């Protein structure tokens, strides 16, 4: 074939496509993503230092209310100034810095599939799905309280799309299950529906212990072996401002004692649970996180920890949180800078506060995601399916997010080209005013030349209208159902599966007293 | 007032709001935006050099088809190798580089309001509105061919929202006006509805001459004075690959001769009008742009020029352009790098290829916009209202885009804080588990603390549903109508207005032979 033939290139192209690979989007799992760009920063070194100094002042002069006697005992043993009457624990800078020195700057959490190990730290970019929502919503069944079926659906869809590097903990709250044993079914779902690192619920001693036990079974190891080869994370909040509830501390201490990763995330909404200024919120967020990271190191030197942030502004008329705003972007960038200063890995969030899966949900998420990635945050939470400021997990939003995450993965790929790609001869070979559709240079490359979208529709308006005129959100319905229906369980040793079910049955009986 | 008072802070807040500034979004025009971050780059210096070398090879060995005898004559006079039979002009590297040396790396185009002068170059970020669409679409009237009423509406809305740094040329094609005189009414609309720099239509000698004449009247100067103090730009395409039509060349040469700014934008869709590889498209785009910039310098040494790019991939199944894709992002970043290497200002585009104003239109635009800004492109075209790959201008999309542009403007603002913003005493003053709503630190700041959105709705799902459950796009309808209806004409000397109308009447008569 040569350029300039009369035969339409389009026909020839269709012929070549028969018998070639599907023209659908890639569903290979995202590879380990690396961001080679310098981090985007908004503070200078002096500003970072002032924030850190101020955070230490808050810990030394104000302290945190630690509502667990066991935790207070640990603090006291390692040099904390504990007031049993108020439950306030104050920490000197020297004490905190001494313990912080043991927190690893980077570490690996092991997945059942070693290719899916979670690398935390450096310039690796990790996405995790929505977590913590009480509702599930989709265009078919509408908005309703979460249940275990929806929980499993989310994990399946996200696994099938291959868009996350770890599975969240409570991707949606399965309220159809009794509270005391709910976590057991959640963990079973994580292990059966996916094979990446998963997260334990961030509240409660049994929730932590059972996660560790089940992960040990999943990996065919003892709990002691697991401590040397961590597999789990948990995302825990602080009850900002400056309070940590007993159940949260119980969970944290068990995870740390067993060498598992704690992601400490203060919940510092500006003007509500933290000062209304960005600097003030960062000071408080840093203080709160450092106090807990220090505790983790006191419990077990070298326990892997991640410093989380969830600083954003609120709607000052109503107090509702706002996400994906300029303030949120700045807080995300600054938090990662503070993390680099303190040599701690950082967790951020790709979130929005829209009530529905529309343009607002999308631009807020896009702003958040851009900030998360460009800041060099190491764990980017809620990156698939988050809606309504966290009150709903949305199936359609998973698809919209998937397109954005895959787009970013492509953008982060290094660009390289050879002389042939420069195409000087190909350019000269096409006449002025001609076209490249039939050019050998094009035909040799076009099938793999471009990123193939999952969701985007590039039809003309007329074709789109005649095909039903559906918005991206409407098209997403069929796509998530397809992903769910095409999901196949990842490999799991039948003996391990049996052992897990036996464990769950035994524990459920113990917990319910049956 | 002190912390911890029983009286709800919410009530006190409402009282303070009475008599204070409106809680609506700021409608002050965007200030001159500066991007203080380092540009985001994807090529190394050697790759940039190889692209530039290859572009010079294309110009020397392949050349461009220049379909204007006058232009060929200019090229010949200044060392171009002209083949009159094929109309192909080849240019030696030395010739191009010699002329490129005169193109300014930065310059200012004067607006009627000096505060709105357009600074091109360096780290200044400029947004322009949609241009070139044959259709107008909105939720009220639906999709139809453009008309002068819609043309004026777009300019008014964009002016009222204050979101652009220059007005586009043909924001939508007003097909209700006769073609030969259409440009006169368009220019009148620009001058009457706004006071920022505006763009002449990029095709045709009369279109260029009339723009210059009318701008001279607008500024109360002679055409000669205007050449020393340029006020206009025009965005022109190349008929890629490697062809430039006579009417385009006519317009370019008149603009350049009169010292006005030409933005040369090859239209290099990968695999269609350019090689399917990114590197190849960039080679061709660079070659085409340089040939025209050289022409402009030959016509008038020092003529302000901008190197444009419109490289993106196509949907290989249909040939339709795709925008906001990873390829588009890479092309945008790389084009700006090439511009820095060649010491030329660069034009980029915040575009999408969605058929409707939905999540896809939004994430594609968000990806494009991020790339435009982070690349340090100097003119970011189509940043308000673009849809359908350029086939429609959308009124609702203007609002969605406005929110994103204002968001970026906030993000680009430098962050600074003082000791009081660090809030250590404020943090200590709020009890553990308390809240900051009523804190004096908060009350003193909250009214101006946060960016106030134009479009975003942070209501709870229930409140949003009960208020009508409208998507962002649906809410945008009322917002653009409000902006249009609240628009007031910027100041314009009545004598100048009269002179402009007289000019238009005279020229219309000349053109139509009436």
From TrEMBL, chains A, B:
- EC number of the protein: 2.1.1.-
Region Disordered: list its residue ranges: 1-30
Bias kind Basic residues: ranges: 11-21
Keywords associated with the record:
Methyltransferase, Transferase
Could you mention a single GO BP entry for this protein?
methylation
The record's listing under InterPro entries reads: MttB-like_sf, MTTB_MeTrfase
Q: Name one GO molecular function term.
A: methyltransferase activity
Record family assignment:
Belongs to the trimethylamine methyltransferase family.
For this entry, the protein name equals: Methyltransferase
Origin organism is Alsobacter ponti
